[in-house]
Amino acid sequence: MNSLAKVVLVTAAALMFAGCGSASKKELKPAELEKFSSEVELERSWKRNIGVGQGKGLNHLVPALDGLTLYAADARGQVVAMDRDDGSIRWRSRLKERMSGAVGVGGGRVLVGTLDGEVIALDEADGSELWRARVSSEVLAPPQSNGDVVVVQTLDDTLEALDITSGERRWIYESSLPVLTVRGHAAPLVTIRTVFAGLASGRVVALAADTGLPLWEQRVAQPQGRSELERMVDIDGDLELVGETLYVATFQGNIAALDAASGQVRWQRPASSHGGASASLGVVYLSHADGVVEAFDAARGTPVWRNESMLRRQLTAPAVFSSHVAVADYQGYIHLLAQTDGRPTARLRVDRKGVRVQPLVVGDRIYVYGNSGDLVALRLK
């Protein structure tokens, strides 16, 4: 992290309570869970422990799926491949590196990034190491691949593309980093031709996947305020691409819909979020930094509904699950809300140490990776 000696990093958890104090300097507590009548019931299909899980830091290690295999990693470098239907272990690799960006899959590779600034590629078939490459700084989001290149975004807001076969660098894109940033990054979104990335400056860039040449750049949020804390507009949630529209949300800024080909803003609304947006059936869902869950019309950006029952509960990014929207919180509860109006429909506690990564939805199952290392597969009963 020597390249960032002059940059101050702030954790999302600290920011969640910054500015929330009253005149007596007391922090507002997370909202108590409200009672409601469940409309559906979640049941566990299987549970698998993945080592130490997120570890002692504020890692956001996420599971990933390729075909019928589910992959997950823990903070101490253990990577596990499981059958997505029953959780049975297909292979387990113990790298012993401090994991901070995991897991990405693509092109027959399982991809992870480390606190020491390395990207490691494993063989999807058996977990054997194929190559490792040094990048400019810490990797805080899963590397992504289109089958030709592996793209990684590092802590200093550098994007690097590595050859998927050898790990050799193909291109690099550097950007200026603000004085103060939230510790975290969205994973780059990589298609066959284009790499989309959200930056700590509140900008989104589109690059040619084969050469790294810039295609367009768009500012989603403008820094405002007198202090550096007030001026943070990081994009830390993953971008969502639906058809030709790219959805992005910033901290202390906006949620916006961009034209994926040109970067032109189709609509934007004020928002502050650490997680990305999820879109389904013409509606975009967002977890705000203060715990509000909000739905927007995908075409116009007009609000559809708001749920304010989970304030300050440090919610994950939402995931669309059947006819529900799923979020998890700092106490390890997963909450289901109705897509139509945001009313609560179900709740289940899955990890007493909390959940900080977005649930993964595949078909009729939702996979939740808790901070303690328990990966749980759930379905509607």
Automatic annotation (TrEMBL):
<dbReference type="InterPro" id="IPR011047">
    <property type="entry name" value="Quinoprotein_ADH-like_sf"/>
</dbReference>
<dbReference type="GO" id="GO:0009279">
    <property type="term" value="C:cell outer membrane"/>
</dbReference>
<dbReference type="Pfam" id="PF13360">
    <property type="entry name" value="PQQ_2"/>
</dbReference>
<keyword id="KW-0732">Signal</keyword>
<keyword id="KW-0472">Membrane</keyword>
<dbReference type="GO" id="GO:0043165">
    <property type="term" value="P:Gram-negative-bacterium-type cell outer membrane assembly"/>
</dbReference>
<feature type="domain" description="Pyrrolo-quinoline quinone repeat">
    <location>
        <begin position="76"/>
        <end position="307"/>
    </location>
</feature>
<comment type="function">
    <text>Part of the outer membrane protein assembly complex, which is involved in assembly and insertion of beta-barrel proteins into the outer membrane.</text>
</comment>
<comment type="similarity">
    <text>Belongs to the BamB family.</text>
</comment>
<dbReference type="GO" id="GO:0051205">
    <property type="term" value="P:protein insertion into membrane"/>
</dbReference>
<feature type="signal peptide">
    <location>
        <begin position="1"/>
        <end position="23"/>
    </location>
</feature>
<keyword id="KW-0564">Palmitate</keyword>
<protein>
    <recommendedName>
        <fullName>Outer membrane protein assembly factor BamB</fullName>
    </recommendedName>
</protein>
<dbReference type="InterPro" id="IPR002372">
    <property type="entry name" value="PQQ_rpt_dom"/>
</dbReference>
<keyword id="KW-0449">Lipoprotein</keyword>
<keyword id="KW-0998">Cell outer membrane</keyword>
<dbReference type="InterPro" id="IPR017687">
    <property type="entry name" value="BamB"/>
</dbReference>
<comment type="subunit">
    <text>Part of the Bam complex.</text>
</comment>
<dbReference type="InterPro" id="IPR015943">
    <property type="entry name" value="WD40/YVTN_repeat-like_dom_sf"/>
</dbReference>
<dbReference type="InterPro" id="IPR018391">
    <property type="entry name" value="PQQ_b-propeller_rpt"/>
</dbReference>
